Automatic annotation (TrEMBL):
<comment type="similarity">
    <text>Belongs to the PNP synthase family.</text>
</comment>
<protein>
    <recommendedName>
        <fullName>Pyridoxine 5'-phosphate synthase</fullName>
        <ecNumber>2.6.99.2</ecNumber>
    </recommendedName>
</protein>
<feature type="binding site">
    <location>
        <position position="99"/>
    </location>
    <ligand>
        <name>1-deoxy-D-xylulose 5-phosphate</name>
    </ligand>
</feature>
<keyword id="KW-0808">Transferase</keyword>
<dbReference type="InterPro" id="IPR004569">
    <property type="entry name" value="PyrdxlP_synth_PdxJ"/>
</dbReference>
<comment type="subunit">
    <text>Homooctamer; tetramer of dimers.</text>
</comment>
<feature type="active site" description="Proton acceptor">
    <location>
        <position position="42"/>
    </location>
</feature>
<dbReference type="InterPro" id="IPR036130">
    <property type="entry name" value="Pyridoxine-5'_phos_synth"/>
</dbReference>
<feature type="binding site">
    <location>
        <position position="49"/>
    </location>
    <ligand>
        <name>1-deoxy-D-xylulose 5-phosphate</name>
    </ligand>
</feature>
<feature type="site" description="Transition state stabilizer">
    <location>
        <position position="150"/>
    </location>
</feature>
<keyword id="KW-0664">Pyridoxine biosynthesis</keyword>
<feature type="binding site">
    <location>
        <position position="44"/>
    </location>
    <ligand>
        <name>1-deoxy-D-xylulose 5-phosphate</name>
    </ligand>
</feature>
<dbReference type="GO" id="GO:0033856">
    <property type="term" value="F:pyridoxine 5'-phosphate synthase activity"/>
</dbReference>
<keyword id="KW-0963">Cytoplasm</keyword>
<feature type="binding site">
    <location>
        <begin position="211"/>
        <end position="212"/>
    </location>
    <ligand>
        <name>3-amino-2-oxopropyl phosphate</name>
    </ligand>
</feature>
<dbReference type="Pfam" id="PF03740">
    <property type="entry name" value="PdxJ"/>
</dbReference>
<feature type="active site" description="Proton donor">
    <location>
        <position position="189"/>
    </location>
</feature>
Length: 235
């Protein structure tokens, strides 16, 4: 299983002082050097962590894969085409939320989604949709032309015991179904060093995206060690 590292919260820490350090690009390069196969960043509409100059610098520096998480807005669509990340991941976004609270409401926005994705796909950028682990959402993602889906693991991360086992089963079934449609499957949100081990056994999930837990761990042991520790668990 591959690991993509979200470096948003390096920017959160930097922005607390509104200065220059720590540098998200330096963090991205350390993560790559330590075994991450991709760097994830979320350019939010309110620019609360990653900012436009960060995205431009990351595009120049990242040599593995740059995954731009973004809302479905005209501004973000234009930025994606101008920046040319290898991958964009569409996520829902609310200004009042602390972090993304659920999967993209694909059924509600389907007609707009198809039109929105057209110029991005035309530019040769791969498309991922951050969705709930539900068959209907997967069907619509495939119909919209997504290359892969990122299954939202937030509910799994918030539960324990039998309830968590039920959520894991839903994720497993969704991954199998998505793969059967020809979609590649990744997973993310709320995954950490304590709850991620069962994902090793879901062979259809080829990659996990981890941000907050890994950056929090890095505050104690450094990014290289935090990345290697996570890779040791998932492989």
């Amino acid at each position: 299983m591959r690991l993509a590292v979200n470096i948003d919260h390096i920017a959160t820490l930097r922005n607390a002082r509104n200065e220059h350090n720590p540098d998200p690009v330096a963090a991205a390069l350390l993560a790559e050097k330590s075994g991450a196969i991709g760097i994830v960043c979320h350019l939010r509409e309110d620019r609360r962590h990653i900012r436009d100059h960060d995205l431009a610098a990351l595009r120049k520096a990242v040599t593995t894969k740059l995954d731009l998480e973004m809302a479905m807005t005209d501004e973000m669509g234009a930025i994606a085409v101008a920046t040319m990340p290898e991958l964009i991941t569409l996520v829902p976004e609310k200004r009042e939320e602390l972090t993304t609270e659920g999967g993209f409401a694909i059924e509600r926005h389907f007609n707009r989604l198809v039109d929105f994705l057209e110029p991005i796909k035309g530019a040769g950028i791969e498309i991922s949709l951050f969705i709930e682990a539900e068959q209907r959402a997967i069907d619509l993602a495939e119909k919209a032309g997504a290359d892969l889906v990122e299954l939202h693991t937030g509910a799994y991360a918030l539960k324990t015991g039998e309830e968590q086992a039920i959520e894991l089963k839903k994720i497993r079934q969704a991954a199998v179904y998505a793969k059967s449609l020809g979609l590649r499957v990744v997973a993310g949100h709320g995954l950490n060093y304590e709850n991620i081990a069962p994902f090793r056994d879901i062979e259809e999930i080829e990659e996990v995206s981890i941000g907050h837990a890994l950056i929090a761990r890095a505050a104690f042991v450094g990014i290289p060690a935090a990345v290697r520790e996570m890779l040791d668990i998932i492989n």
